[in-house]
Write a structure and sequence with these properties.
Strand content: 25-35%
Largest sheet: 4 strands, antiparallel
Radius of gyration: 16 Å
Helix content: 25-40%
């Protein structure tokens, strides 16, 4: 049953268009007021708490790991890393005020794509070229220096953090992917977040399924 639900959620993320910006509006409404953090261009995540700002990255990587049957997040697996970045843009790219809708798709400047990638990898260049399997959902528009993203909808599940430990600024986090219909746990994970000078404040150093 759990595998069936996961398959359905992944399919929804990768296939279904997002017809409105309800997710963006609800998350923007729930964001706390800035407490003196330095403004960063596009900065929707920049106004949230440290851990909350990384939840989009954790969610995106977890969905990619489940889709690839990967037990851990290995950035040398460029297909996994690119799909994680696509998931992040697809579900949360509309929260960045540099992005704009073109119909049901989202036009995201390359600058924004690099900012989001910085939460996943130390260098965007290590990702290499966009994989062929993603080009039906993510395309590069060289003329506008942007990416066109087919948006998905994973509104039936969310990341919930269970524990956090801080050691010299490095965060060790455990949490679950929770099916919101009945509150059941679909997957458990552990992640290590390293502090970085980027829009999200951290990069995922390690992540594994439990």
């Amino acid at each position: 049953m759990k595998k069936f639900l996961l398959t359905g959620l992944i399919a929804a993320l990768l296939i279904l268009p997002l017809g409105n910006v309800a997710l963006a509006e609800s998350q923007e409404a729930s964001q706390p007021e800035s407490q003196g953090e330095e403004y960063v261009p596009g900065g929707v995540p920049a106004q949230t708490g440290a851990l909350e700002s990384m939840e989009p990255a954790l969610h995106a990587v977890l969905m990619a790991m489940l889709n690839h049957d990967a037990a851990s997040f290995d950035t040398s697996d460029t297909a996994l890393a690119w799909e994680s970045l696509y998931n992040m843009l697809s579900l949360y790219g509309q929260l960045d005020d540099r992005s704009q809708y073109q119909g049901e798709d989202l036009l995201v400047p390359s600058e924004t794509v690099r900012d989001y990638a910085a939460a996943l990898v130390d260098s965007f260049d290590t990702l290499g070229p966009l994989p062929e399997f993603l080009t039906d959902r993510l395309t590069c528009d060289a003329a506008s220096d942007s990416y066109l993203v087919v948006c998905g909808n994973d509104s039936l599940a969310e990341i919930q953090i269970r524990s956090t430990q801080n050691s010299g600024g490095t965060l060790s986090v455990t949490g679950d992917l929770v099916y919101l219909v009945d509150g059941s746990d679909l997957a458990q994970f552990r992640a290590t977040l390293q502090p970085r000078d980027n829009m999200f404040g951290y990069t995922i150093a390690e992540m594994e399924l439990l």
